[in-house]
């Protein structure tokens, strides 16, 4: 099975986000909405759900009217495919490539690929300047922009909100923890600041280690899981710290897959 984690550039109009997410039908696992980032993460499985959600987002969203603190290149900003149990990374690459062709041919939107070729941060730095799209038009779509379609292993999208609204400190912390297993940004989010992270190797550089490193530099108000976490990550963390790290069995991929298998009951 392949998981697809679709990041769309809308997080303030909850009804609109839910309308887009419903295009996935019974293959919808999770919706995470963020009004300050003006971004939502829609997690789905199956072959039919990704194109349905992507098409719905392109039809309903307009990048020209979008504002938010998170970097983005399109209304459907990032579409990673992730192998779950029974699938391989090569399967995820195949799913990525098939979806990329569909997006460029059917929706006429430029597509940047990441995975074996390059990282997502490289696309963010170079899109339409030093880096041309891999498929589709060479210029951004007038309302949809472009899409970064990727293949990756399981990771943890995770934010730490600092107690004090010191943006320079958040940026400094992000720089200090950034490395092969951690991608991090310090962001102003409303009246607060956060260290926004992707833990790309969470079993080796996990939330406990990162939380404690950040806490050594600044008081933390709360943690926030974005999307879902793999059960194996919870198994590697003492249950006494789950609440502090915003982890729970209910927010695991496995729990949502079981709910789906039970017909949503």
TrEMBL record:
Where in this chain does the record put each Formiminotransferase C-terminal subdomain domain?
155-256
Enzyme Commission code: 2.1.2.5
Domain named Formiminotransferase N-terminal subdomain: which ranges?
1-153
| This protein's name | glutamate formimidoyltransferase
- Offer an example of a GO molecular function term for this protein: glutamate formimidoyltransferase activity
Signal peptide positions are none
Top-level enzyme category = transferase
Any idea which UniProt keywords this protein has?
Answer: Transferase
- The species is freshwater metagenome
Question: Known InterPro entries for this protein?
Answer: Formiminotransferase_C, Formiminotransferase_C_sf, Formiminotransferase_N, Formiminotransferase_N_sf, FormiminoTrfase_cat_dom_sf, FTCD
């Amino acid at each position: 099975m392949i998981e697809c984690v679709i990041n769309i550039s809308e997080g303030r109009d909850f009804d609109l986000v839910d309308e887009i997410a419903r295009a996935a039908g019974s293959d919808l696992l999770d919706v995470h909405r963020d009004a300050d980032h003006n971004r939502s993460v829609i997690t789905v499985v199956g072959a039919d759900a990704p194109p349905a959600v992507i098409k719905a987002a392109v039809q309903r969203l307009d990048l020209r009217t979008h504002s938010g603190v998170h970097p983005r290149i399109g209304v459907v900003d990032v579409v990673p495919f992730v192998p779950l149990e029974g699938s391989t990374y090569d399967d995820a690459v195949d799913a990525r490539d098939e979806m990329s062709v569909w997006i460029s041919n059917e929706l006429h939107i430029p597509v940047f690929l990441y995975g074996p070729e390059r990282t997502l941060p490289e696309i963010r730095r170079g899109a339409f300047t030093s880096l041309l799209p891999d498929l589709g038009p060479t210029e951004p779509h007038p309302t949809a922009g472009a899409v970064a379609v990727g293949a990756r292993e399981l990771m943890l999208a995770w934010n730490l909100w600092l107690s004090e609204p010191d943006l320079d400190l958040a940026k400094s912390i992000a720089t200090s923890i950034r490395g092969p297993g951690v991608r991090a940004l310090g962001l102003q989010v409303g009246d607060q600041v956060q260290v926004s992270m992707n833990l790309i190797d969470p079993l080796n550089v996990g939330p406990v280690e990162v939380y404690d490193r950040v806490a050594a530099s600044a008081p933390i108000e709360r943690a926030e899981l974005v999307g879902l976490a793999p059960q194996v990550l919870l198994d590697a963390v003492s249950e006494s710290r789950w609440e502090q790290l915003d982890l729970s069995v209910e927010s695991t991929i496995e729990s949502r897959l079981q709910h789906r298998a039970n017909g949503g009951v």
